[in-house]
Amino acid sequence: MAAAAAPTNKLHWTTVVPVLALVALALTWGRSISGVVVGIVAVLLGGAVLAAVHHAEVVAHRVGEPFGSLVLAVAVTVIEVSLIVTLMLSGGEGTATLARDTVFAAVMITVNGILGISLLVGARRFNTVQFNAEGTGGALATVATLATVCLVLPTVTTGEVGPEFTSGQLAFAAIASLLLYAAFVLTQTVRHRDFFLPVARDGGPVTDDEDEHADPPSNAQAWLSLGFLVLSLVAVVGLAKVESKSIEAAVDAAGLPHSFVGVVIALLVLLPETIAAVNAARRERIQTSINLAMGSAMASIGLTIPTLAVATLFIDTPLHLGLGPTQIVLLAITIVTAVLTVVPGRATRLQASVHLTLFAAFIFLAASP
């Protein structure tokens, strides 16, 4: 996948920002902070997210595609889970549904938002974009299954009152999600790796001559980025805890439903992923964009739900995973539309417009249910 080369200058912003974020974390942890400090911390939090994904890209560029998309998806999901858990630990209104709102938002953002804008960027430049229907179809089937098992079934099961699994049902969903995600990763990286490689305009695989990527970083650069990736993630986890009350207060002050906190979290952590997908689409590597979108959707469910299932053993908070009727309708039409987009193995601006319309409907209904 495309990735920025690792910076040769160690004072590059991607190495400075994580350090500054850690300093800010040490100075603000456990303290009441003012509005100005909240703003500074928010900037550093955003910078740490961008730095984390940048360093994940460097590592990803070293290991190649489709491993690169996997590295990015896992890195983004670690950030997402960290934000969810820190906000759950802080308690308060909406904690029980925070995971559901965030994971559902991640699915809508990736399958409609990231996919839609990637298709639009690619189609505007190349008229029709090509991708591998076999790999993309398998990824979409995995996303649909994970979303149904983890987000739809809790609404219709009767073991617990409300949209909640029993302990046994949650354990089953967590294990099934983890195994299904592992099966997909094995398929993507080992068994059928060619299904997830970029496709040329004639429908064949992209050759090395067509690949406009920069030279891969050295082992030393990759290890350095791996170290800064860890530091960035630590900073994100800590600063998210510091900012948790401010995020909720800002949503409430704007007059938005408290559930919109989950949308804010998903938008925050998936912004760098969106940028990476759009950059790939500009180079006519739409398969890489799709790998990023579907991989993030899968990881958001397949890794988040098992992690939260374990976290509920230590956090005395109910976990309401079941979607409401409006959300279920949006998920259903999204899956149907995505199937129709994927089957031909090519797409135009029309398919992009349809997905972006669904994304706009999700954002509007999340803000005005």
UniProtKB/TrEMBL annotation:
Regions crossing the membrane: 12-30, 36-55, 67-90, 102-123, 135-156, 168-187, 222-240, 260-280, 292-315, 321-343, 350-367
Membrane-related topology note: Multi-pass membrane protein
Location of the Sodium/calcium exchanger membrane region domain: 37-189, 225-365
Pfam families: Na_Ca_ex
MF GO annotations: potassium:proton antiporter activity; sodium:proton antiporter activity
GO cellular component: plasma membrane
Record has Disulfide bond as a keyword: no
Record key words, sorted: Membrane, Transmembrane, Transmembrane helix
Compartments in which it is found: Membrane
PANTHER family recorded: SODIUM-POTASSIUM/PROTON ANTIPORTER CHAA, SODIUM-POTASSIUM_PROTON ANTIPORTER CHAA
Protein name: Ca2+:H+ antiporter
Taxonomic path: Bacteria, Bacillati, Actinomycetota, Actinomycetes, Micrococcales
